UniProtKB/TrEMBL annotation:
Keyword ATP-binding belongs to the record: no
Entry's transmembrane regions: 199-221
Region listing for Disordered, in residue ranges: 236-308
Organism: Streptomyces similanensis
Superkingdom of the source species: Bacteria
Stated name of the protein: Hydrogenase expression protein
Coiled coil (residue ranges): none
Biased composition (Low complexity): 236-258, 295-308
């Protein structure tokens, strides 16, 4: 584009040209300065070079050029215009992971990236040679904004189950179809495992054959066993004289024979079996004897399993199938693991010196979570802590642990976390400071940060919602 300039003043002046606005980085002016005599006209050329990226939004984009006279810098002129960028489409798809394993199903995810500068609408379908698999795709249709990505969860189910034998590879293809464009195929492999390994089937077969053989031999060669107990008793009875019977008044009652308890009596001081009122039975005897009704049975109490964030979120998911929930608990120095809380309830302790060293998080309905702890660094030279390694993406209903829950672990001053679908929000409290404002992050690869980057202070409480 050409820009024509006329010097309407009465002195020779030099003019400087500077592109301004959102598309200024893509604009060049040649020449950048122009010297004009009074009443003369000059021309400069504007060249626009928008990149082939989502940043170059399709449609009209306003631009401007600031013209500054050297002799009269206060007389600045800014002519404006519009640059129309034509749309282009570029889609990339990838299976994560490309190979899945399972006996009855496989669950890969298809990541579809929109690298163009206009919104993309596409449908996803699955196919394979021989129609050996069935496909459950959610969602089957996606709309993706420029520069964003969509994730499609796929469930692959084999039409035939391998009961015995080795695993088999079943190649398949997920196709991304856009209107007026060729399908974009993405190839993957489902590795179907046998329900029982071949060696186990052989073992059961040999074991059954041995059992049948043993039974047949026992039937064919069963020994003839007879007992001489009756004859011996009769012979002994014939050689013994009858004993005189005692008078009826001197015979001891049958109930006076000592009884052998089936189990040793329990300690009456045991809190689990003691009298709930804490006193005796009213007759001066042992309160645990029960009036001679027999020894009490022994009680064995198993240690209950730990209540983690995953057990808490699974309880919510059971009562609210298809709902979105997040549960979490804090490991506090000097206290240990707290009980898990969910959906915006505070975990930790405010107004104290209790430092959070680790967090246990679990989600449901959000396609898993990944996180990264930001911890205090005693050797810091810039007043900041440092990040530790990101956790792997932990599936819904599973425990995700952030930081370290041990005596020598550094205190957490903050952490970053993301989820697979939807939004995640946080409100956090840092020692010696008030509660911060709520911040939120979109689905992966976006994230939300809780706490502070400052070294020497620590995270003391947090609330999370999805």
């Amino acid at each position: 584009m050409r820009l024509r300039l006329r010097n309407t003043g009465d002195v020779v002046d030099e003019y400087r040209f500077e592109p301004v606005g959102d598309i200024a980085p893509w604009t060049t002016v040649e020449p950048q300065t122009l010297r004009l005599y009074p009443g003369t006209t000059g021309t400069v050329e504007l060249t626009f070079s928008p990149p082939r990226t989502p940043d170059a939004t399709a449609g009209p984009n306003p631009f401007a050029v600031r013209i500054t006279p050297t002799e009269h810098p206060e007389a600045v002129t800014v002519p404006e215009g519009n640059l129309t960028i034509t749309p282009f489409t570029e889609v990339r798809a990838e299976l994560v992971p490309p190979t899945v394993k399972g006996r009855f199903r496989g669950r890969p995810r298809l990541a579809v990236d929109n690298l163009g500068n206009t919104k993309v609408t596409a449908s996803v379908s699955g196919s394979d040679n021989g129609d050996q698999l069935s496909y459950d795709l959610h969602p089957s249709n996606v709309q993706i904004e420029p520069g964003r990505a969509a994730f499609v969860k796929a469930t692959l189910k084999p039409r035939k189950i391998i009961w015995f034998g080795s695993k088999e590879q079943r190649p398949y293809t997920l196709a991304v179809q856009r209107s007026g464009a060729k399908p974009l195929p993405v190839e993957g492999t489902y590795l179907q495992r046998g329900f029982l390994p071949r060696w186990l089937a052989t073992f059961f077969g040999v074991l059954m054959a041995l059992g049948i053989t043993f039974v047949m031999l026992w039937i064919a060669y069963k020994p003839n066993i007879s007992s001489g107990a009756t004859e011996k008793v009769a012979e002994a009875g014939s050689t013994l004289a009858p004993a005189p019977s005692a008078p009826a008044s001197r015979q001891p009652p049958l109930s006076s024979a000592p009884e052998t308890p089936a189990m040793p009596p329990q300690d009456p001081t045991d809190g689990a079996d003691a009298d709930p009122k804490g006193g005796d039975d009213g007759d001066g005897g042992d309160g645990g004897s029960g009036g001679g009704k027999g020894a009490p049975a022994a009680t064995v109490t198993a240690k209950p399993p730990a209540d983690t964030a995953a057990t808490a979120v699974r309880r919510l998911a059971k009562n609210d199938p298809g709902g979105r929930h997040i549960c979490y608990r804090a490991f506090v120095a000097g206290e240990g693991w707290q009980k898990p809380v969910c959906d915006g309830t505070m975990s930790g302790r405010t107004g104290s010196d209790a430092k959070i060293k680790a967090l246990n998080v679990a989600t449901t309905g959000v396609d898993g979570s990944a996180a990264n702890a930001f911890v205090n660094d005693p050797q810091s030279t810039d007043g900041k802590g440092h990040y530790v390694k990101w956790t792997a993406i932990v599936a819904d209903g599973k425990d995700n642990y952030i930081g370290r829950a041990d005596k020598d672990a550094p205190s957490m001053s903050g952490f970053a976390i993301n989820i697979g679908t939807g939004r995640i929000c946080q409100v956090s409290s840092v020692w010696s400071r008030a509660w911060g404002a709520q911040t939120c992050g979109d689905q992966r690869p976006a994230l939300v940060f809780a706490g502070t980057l400052d070294n020497g202070v620590w995270l003391e409480a947090v609330k999370l919602t999805v």
